[in-house]
Amino acid sequence: MNRTHTNGELRLSDVNKKVTLLGWVAKRRNFGSLVFIDLRDRSGITQLVFDETSSEAIKEVRNEYILEVEGTVHERKDKNPNLETGEIEVVVDKVEIINSAKTTPLIIADETDALEDTRLKYRYLDLRRPIMQKKLLMRHAITKSLRGYLDDHGFVEIETPVLGKSTPEGARDYLVPSRVHPGCFYALPQSPQLFKQLLMISGFERYYQFARCFRDEDLRADRQTDFTQLDMEMSFLSDVEIQTMMEEMLAKLMKDVKGLDIPTPFLRLSYEEAMNRYGSDKPDNRFGMELQEITDIFTDCGFQVFKDCIAKGGSIKAVVVPDKADMTRKEIDKITELAKKNGAKGLVTLKYMHEEISGSIVKFLTEKELNALKETLALKENDLILIVSDAWETTCNVLGALRNHFGTVLGLKKKDEFSFLWVTDFPMFEYSEEDGRYYAKHHPFTRPKQEDMKYIDEDPSKVHAIAYDVVLNGYELGGGSLRIYDSKMQEKMFEVMGFTEEQIHERFGFFVDAFQYGTPPHGGLAFGLDRIAMILSESDSIRDVIAFPKNANAKCPMSDAPTPVDPQQLEELHIKIDNE
Amino acid sequence: MNRTHTNGELRLSDVNKKVTLLGWVAKRRNFGSLVFIDLRDRSGITQLVFDETSSEAIKEVRNEYILEVEGTVHERKDKNPNLETGEIEVVVDKVEIINSAKTTPLIIADETDALEDTRLKYRYLDLRRPIMQKKLLMRHAITKSLRGYLDDHGFVEIETPVLGKSTPEGARDYLVPSRVHPGCFYALPQSPQLFKQLLMISGFERYYQFARCFRDEDLRADRQTDFTQLDMEMSFLSDVEIQTMMEEMLAKLMKDVKGLDIPTPFLRLSYEEAMNRYGSDKPDNRFGMELQEITDIFTDCGFQVFKDCIAKGGSIKAVVVPDKADMTRKEIDKITELAKKNGAKGLVTLKYMHEEISGSIVKFLTEKELNALKETLALKENDLILIVSDAWETTCNVLGALRNHFGTVLGLKKKDEFSFLWVTDFPMFEYSEEDGRYYAKHHPFTRPKQEDMKYIDEDPSKVHAIAYDVVLNGYELGGGSLRIYDSKMQEKMFEVMGFTEEQIHERFGFFVDAFQYGTPPHGGLAFGLDRIAMILSESDSIRDVIAFPKNANAKCPMSDAPTPVDPQQLEELHIKIDNE
């Protein structure tokens, strides 16, 4: 085939050139004996003009036929400013039909009303829609930009095993029965965590990998059976050095892919500040409506709920929603429902109209309290005030969820605005009431802050980890930590988490051994590639940036996977289906 | 940490600089009160000099301890020309022990006598050996070079599913039981073949992916449970256009990674020629000793074996091994054994000494035959002549194996010589005597040569495929084909292979449907990355270029995977272990 140009390429300066084009028929319309065809390929669309009487073949051409045409570039009379090639058209001398096409079950255009299951069943056609191609092209541009940075900064890409060992910690594993070892199973990796740390012990110093990771969890809009993470680990660097490098990498990414200059260093919020101000450990700071602390106003309050909350050491906070004092009872009920879904026992709503605060609890409040509220919250006419009084974390979480809700409702989350920030200083441990013990919040190899080690025996909950998350527009893009490299500190951590020698050996076995042969100080992080691609391509779901995703039921509507298999296959793998 | 330089970096021009270095103690030796330490990191080794009396800490330092040192660069008296930093040493003022190390179970040096299972059990230490690091760094350099070419030539990297559908054709699948769909299984991909063809139907035009592929087959030196292939597919290109692009890509690779200019275009051999001349469809042409056709000499032969062979339409060929006429009976027996292992019923060996051919069958041959042999084979003093008479394919295969054997024995396979070639024109079909039907030799979607379609009904074995393999030094690096894009031709192929409508639907289902919506002419190929890395890094096994490989028993001696799992995990997956 002698294609001379792609369909996105021709301009006024090409007029009078003889060209050969290839592509799919995107649209065909007749005008007397003239036939106009929009010919499409990956790069765009070119308008073709035929004289129908000149060719028998052209009569049968319909949408999605593949043509090879020879012709001459002409200036268009009716130019199309929305098309890059809109100033020209190609007057065709010769046409060859390369392939025909049945009528497609979904229309090949950016706009579609096809159901998602239809789109997934005919994914090869869904991906023919230019908007979908652009998303996958952008995903490639993203990985290319990230690789470029890492390759230029001494990182080595190393592949780690996909058939690994099942571990009891973490999410549910996907298992792969072994044919050679009856009754034994491989597990697909939830992340290359252990391997990347081993590579630091090996002395590779800087590692990266675009790693496929697997978690057998129920799916949501931003979850798939497997996902791709940009996984990194570095030796001999501090947390701030790692963060600075990542900021450079992300700034380059935004420049390469979106043409935007984003400011560095990013805003850094401690976990505590993020929770206090945004009610979230992944705050979206493209908009305000921050949480405000009002516990002190009610230290001696007549409203029993507030009084009890303070007595229990809880926290009272408010979010002020501008111009929403006119919400109906029904609307308020919905908000209250949302608060409860996020763990609140109740939600106090007040309105500020005609310079007065109104609402059912006002009768329990003093003039002084109302004035303090007015002043602290800097109330403006028609403000809606949402108040939650509960344990600190619950108060933060609930108001964070409501803030998020109103951010969406009020259209404050601009898709073409990109706000990066770090959340740092996460607590090292989480206490499980159920199990009566501490768990590592990040993972058991995370390095604690040295200055907090004085609390380790008396109150482990006061110990913070050198862990950090990157947040973009309210999504956790990724996170990581410095790791422990001192065997004694590691032992102490295991002790706090109540592990016995035997449990340590069973759970962490060879990995703990490895640490004794000269482990460098190291740390790293991982970014969710699907999520980055989703946000930068301004998509609503990660399914839009994955070529062949599973549906919410973990099924591929195109290939039908997973399916029943031949009984002989199971026999070879020494397993049976358990029908009970 | 304030590292100013790496350990491979300092030169004479740095003398008198104050430097801070980090790394592992590779060697320590005392000389009076002076201590010499070789400090190692990824980039190399620097010699440190300490005054032992100056520091208490230095006394306890042993191999594989991690140090941070400050000191001054001095010119060395006894320069080491084998070391890039061999002209300098660093006289240390200040040392900090970053971490200690137990005695390692294997020595951290290029040369090792450790058993492979020890190396794999302590892989993190095996990978600390500089020679192993170099191999993985080269692997990264290889992928970087290949990506660079593809990114510059309009290829899009697209990830395809790891959790796919099990198909009855091909090798044995690894299966993954589904929790959500009881009794159903995903399969790990043997290759992204269907998906990459679907991406062409989607109109991506040029696709690539470094894809992890899985085949549950028994392992060999160049096989693993999973392997990485550079997978590519292109639309609207001819086989020669695809091959030319690949030659450019590989020439760039050899330049980037080995600094070598390799000639393009590569030699092209048809399958038939490759078999006739080298007895292999992946010939190593770094050396001669080609197979020679001698059937015609024996058309009227008194030696019954030759006579029968010719009567059955077989082929008699010879390989001449120079300077090996002095092989002992025992050595010849070994060669005969090897011939039989490769399918020969027997092996005729002749010797050419004192201008005479000798050997047990000489008494059955005429003077004319002996003279013809001498002339055709251009015999030289002390030549050993190996003759096989059998069906054409067997004759070729056996002599190809013997040629290979002597190529190794005679040291003709130079590891630093790289010879690329194409093998083309493979037969489209293989006939299975057992099943009484034709199978596709490559896969059922391979495009046949148009000019052979006249034989399709009368003798399908005469039909060649537009399929091509790239061979490097006797290894198949990769291969591919143009694919069928015409539904009618596809139907014809299925007919030849004896598939019913139902079988077609069951086996190829949605994929055959997809072809009806405007499929472009397309083709592609895949390269085995592990094998490329093995050859270019001059390694003996692909395990040397995989960070964490499995052993020959499909086990990871480090993590112990695969292992038994918790019964509850199996219950959730609706499977039981079958102990029968």
Question: Can you put this structure into words, describing what you see?
Answer:
The structure is a homodimer of 580-residue chains. Chain A contains 14 helices and 23 strands. Chain A has 580 residues and is an alpha+beta fold. Among the domains of chain A are: 12-99, OB fold (Dihydrolipoamide Acetyltransferase, E2P); 124-267 and 520-563, Bira Bifunctional Protein, Domain 2 (BirA Bifunctional Protein, domain 2, 2-Layer Sandwich); 287-412, GAD-like domain (Gyrase A, domain 2), CATH 3.30.1360. In chain A, the strands form 5 sheets. In chain A, strands 6-9-10-22-21-20-17-11 form an 8-stranded mixed β-sheet, with helices on both faces. The first copy, chain A, has a 5-stranded mixed β-barrel with strand order 1-2-3-5-4. The first copy, chain A, has a 5-stranded antiparallel β-sheet with strand order 12-13-16-14-15. In chain A, helix 6 crosses helix 10 and helix 8 packs across helix 10. Chain A starts with 17 loop residues before the first strand and ends with a strand. The mean pLDDT of chain A is 94. Strand 23 of chain A pairs antiparallel with strand 23 of chain B, so a sheet runs across the interface. Chains A, B: It catalyses: tRNA(Asp) + L-aspartate + ATP = L-aspartyl-tRNA(Asp) + AMP + diphosphate. Chains A, B: One of its GO terms (molecular function) is aspartate-tRNA ligase activity. Chains A, B: Homodimer. Chains A, B: It comes from Amedibacillus dolichus.
